[in-house]
Amino acid sequence: MTSSLTPLPQSRHLATAIPGPRSQALHAERQAHVTDGFGIALPVFIDRADGGILQDVDGNRLIDFASGIAVTSIGASNPRVRERVAAQLERFTHTCFMVTEYESFTQVAMWLNEHTPGDFEKRTALFSTGAEAVENAVKIARSATGRSKVLVFDEAYHGRSLMTMAMTAKENPYRLNFGPFPTEVVRAASANPLRPAASATATTNDDGVPASGADVAAAALASVEATLAEYGAESFAAMVIEPIQGEGGFIVPAPGFLKGLREIATKHGIVLVIDEIQAGMGRTGTLFASEHEGIAGDMTLSAKALADGVPLSAVTGRADLMNAVHAGGLGGTYAGNPLACEAALAVFEAFEDGTLLANARAIEAAAREVLEPLVAETDVVAEFRGRGAMLALEFADRGTLEPRADLAKEISARCHAQGVLTLTCGTYGNVIRLLPPLVIGDELFRDGLAVLRQTIVDVAAGRDATATEAAAPALA
Ligand SMILES: *Cc1c(COP(=O)(O)O)cnc(C)c1O
């Protein structure tokens, strides 16, 4: 669709300090009217966004390493999305799919049934948010199995509703002061290769040889079996896991762990739910991240990038499970809203020729080339990890692995001041994550990588911010 706006230049540009005066004024106004309960990564107000650029109200152009948390993968003003959503806007905005039907809902379901992992008959239910998809997966699994418990994992993130908070691992900020939580949620060890849970493994074997990834996976799987035995495997409806843990720190599980979970779930008749809300929809270089592990969940959850920013989420699963629920048991006023379904169909079209998946892999290659050497070159980058365009650096002291959230915070703030929007994550807040849009240009991406790399080198060496960085006022 042609736009009335001039194309947004795909280059970084600092017109003012970050945040600029207009952003600061708008932020002050926000503080007078909006709850303080929302955090903010960078108090900058955005005017336009496209490709790899966010343009703020002061005319600064920031390089987008966030994609609105893995959402705007095909660009924040993608022409296909604009065209389909605009056409739908002219026809109707809403009927409620439980009142009268529209075809796009079925078409989204059809695509997900065909493209999610698993060579079996599937059905899909659409909702609006990721947390809703997780909640509904639990409802469906309970209804289908007649069991109640849900197994979740260390470092998990599944959302901010009451059930999904219970399933999320990190207390602050997600759960603090918000309890009590629903019961029947049991947490097991995950297979974090850098930081194996004490319950899951020794870091060396009997001969003092450092544990390998396979050791970490085997030990974590043994711990999962022990947890299931303790709580009664036959009382678990579902186990829910992210194929790459997102908010928990972009943790790629030790090789073999997810395959092992698949086997354990099958053995005990537990529904395996793969939460692909952050890692799915092409982010990691395959349509779904479970493809890297050669496994299929009994249910696969999608949201975030599914409709390029128009709220839409999905539970796609085995037909027998999805149809076990009584008629009328699932739904929601906005579930599978027609504007969102049209946006999702545009996203599916965008993925058709394979270019975006190739882009995700090229993003990984470029970032690996620039950032991975920092592990050897500095004493504070413990790991470069991730897949495709879902990448992270963990900051910790060499040897002790003492987490260095202070460094992640300082580096992120200095990147922001230079016009590169990075985000942090992780149980210890010591991880910087990269989630660029898959449509970011190579030159722009490399400019952002160069800024990030130099900033890490400077901070690791204890050097002060450069003149450009120092010009920026401290963030609120
Ligand atoms: C973001 C996220 C959710 C929650 O999605 P919302 O749309 O914020 O409710 C659930 N699971 C994972 C893995 C996520 O990254």
From TrEMBL:
The keyword Transferase applies. One of its GO terms (molecular function) is 4-aminobutyrate:2-oxoglutarate transaminase activity. Keywords: Aminotransferase, Pyridoxal phosphate, Transferase. Pfam families: Aminotran_3 (PF00202). It catalyses: (S)-3-amino-2-methylpropanoate + 2-oxoglutarate = 2-methyl-3-oxopropanoate + L-glutamate; 4-aminobutanoate + 2-oxoglutarate = succinate semialdehyde + L-glutamate. InterPro entries: Aminotrans_3, Aminotrans_3_PPA_site, Class-III_PLP-dep_AT, PyrdxlP-dep_Trfase, PyrdxlP-dep_Trfase_major, PyrdxlP-dep_Trfase_small. Belongs to the class-III pyridoxal-phosphate-dependent aminotransferase family. It comes from the Bacteria. Its EC number is 2.6.1.19, 2.6.1.22. The lineage of its organism: Bacteria, Bacillati, Actinomycetota, Actinomycetes, Micrococcales. Its cofactor is pyridoxal 5'-phosphate. This is (S)-3-amino-2-methylpropionate transaminase. Pathway: Amino-acid degradation; 4-aminobutanoate degradation.
